[in-house]
Amino acid sequence: MHVGVVGAGYVGLVAAVGLAAAGHDTAVAEADPAKLAALREGRVPFYEPGLQEWLDSVAARMTFVESAGSLPPCDVVLIAVGTPSGPSGQTDLTQVRQAVREVAATARPGTVVAMKSTVPPGTGLELVRAYLEPAGRDLAYVSNPEFLREGKAVDDWLHPDRVVVGAAEPGAGERVAELYRHLGAPLLMTDITSAEMVKYASNALLATKISFINEIANVCELVGAHIDDVARGVGMDPRLGSHFLQAGIGYGGSCFPKDTRALDFTAALNGYSFELLTAVIEVNRRQRIRVVQRLHEALGGLAGRSVAVLGLSFKPGTDDTRESPGVEIARMLAGAGAEVRAYDPVARLSQEAEQVLGPGARRTATLAEAVAGAQAVVVATEWQEFREADWAAVRRAMERPWVIFDGRNCLDGEAMESLGFTYFAVGRQVGRRRQAAVAARAGRPCE
Ligand SMILES: NC(=O)C1=CN([C@@H]2O[C@H](COP(=O)(O)OP(=O)(O)OC[C@H]3O[C@@H](n4cnc5c(N)ncnc54)[C@H](O)[C@@H]3O)[C@@H](O)[C@H]2O)C=CC1
Ligand SMILES: O=C(O)[C@H]1O[C@H](OP(=O)(O)OP(=O)(O)OC[C@H]2O[C@@H](n3ccc(=O)[nH]c3=O)[C@H](O)[C@@H]2O)[C@H](O)[C@@H](O)[C@@H]1O
Questions:
Q1: How far is 446 from 158, CA to CA, in rounded Å?
Q2: ipTM higher than the 0.95 cut
Q3: 255 noted as active-site residue
Q4: Where is the UDP-glucose/GDP-mannose dehydrogenase C-terminal domain (predicted)?
Q5: Do residues 98 and 136 touch, judged by C-beta distance below 8 A?
Q6: Given ligand 1 and candidates 131, 254, 318, 350, which is best to mutate, with the most ligand atoms within 8 Å of its CB?
Q7: 224-437 belongs to which CATH class?
């Protein structure tokens, strides 16, 4: 088939390369001149493990153009542009509307427009009415949400758990499903709005698991239980599943935060108060603040204290800093008067994000530079470099009281304490603090 893709971000580029690898002639429209220039030189314009090699192997079947209107005639055009949050949590559909408008104005009759961007339930039907029907050229619309993860995008594309296709006309849905047939994944064919809802329900449930385990971890701290064992025990029940039970400083990234807010907003818009989801969002917000509270306590205030934040990308394996807990924590600490040095081995900070780190925070080129003279260290992203760091050397480079907040529960707490650190984590207590919590609990009357 001849396939067009609008938007060469994480989803669009992975989809385009995956479809080219499956033998389709693929044309990609990318509006950002710098990204387009990189792609025309054969370079992936962001960090995604394995994608450069994959692109190299299929480059001959790919072309890159500057706008959706310049795409060659296609059987299917995938839309994979950004859908960021608006100020009240609603989805900003500006990029989607622009892309669909351009495709509707130029696509040849009979083209199928497949939406891979995450758009709120009801959007597809509205786009059909606003742009495809008025074009009068028999353009079909299909919702085809994407479930890949950053950092594992290539593998996720090749091994999807399912392919979801929402269509009003079976023929159009079939044409999109055909693009994935070779992957052998289970296929759900449904209507457009249900397909849109599958995407939000999936992300909301994953976010709920994270906020739930974080609440359990917070209670573990009070009763002297150990979240690692608790999560392992819970996950042994296949009905509950062992995934997404990693407690920490909460979820970030370009999708969970915005998609939970968008679903909350959509529910409210339709007159429904989605209490559970509102709580999931609030728990996630508070989980980051707990780090700042804990350091405030441990350092006897934050003004003038020196704190290193390790990890600015929202998770390991990506350079994406959108809604990253590490960035947010650095900003809160700096806002409270701490002198913050932040380090990340890969993260890409936009100019805006550099500014967002604020006057009290600056980024360093190395871990050693970040921790030199710091009184506390926060591990915000579980990069391998942090797991494998020479923590004895880090302790020597720091100043008293040698506090470490392991926001991803990725270090050996006992080992940290034996190096002289005061070790805090999420739902984990080691050494003296664990004994104290258990003793305090034992001394309390039963409720
Ligand atoms: N990042 C991820 O892991 C996943 C993202 N999604 C969804 O997929 C969509 C895209 O996400 P990302 O790839 O992260 O976005 P992104 O922001 O990284 O990339 C979007 C790209 O589209 C380009 N663009 C915007 N309007 C355009 C137009 N009219 N013509 C040509 N190019 C245009 C932008 O310049 C940008 O390069 C979002 O709706 C997101 O929620 C879904 C699953 C996973
Ligand atoms: O819609 C999307 O964009 C994508 O959002 C997530 O993918 P992604 O944001 O790349 O990253 P995840 O691996 O899901 O992690 C999201 C955040 O949750 C945090 N997390 C994850 C798992 C966990 O157990 N605990 C936890 O705190 C991570 O640190 C990270 O900040 C989903 O996993 C994808 O299925 C989905 O397609």
A1: 53
A2: yes
A3: yes
A4: 308-413
A5: no
A6: 254
A7: alpha beta
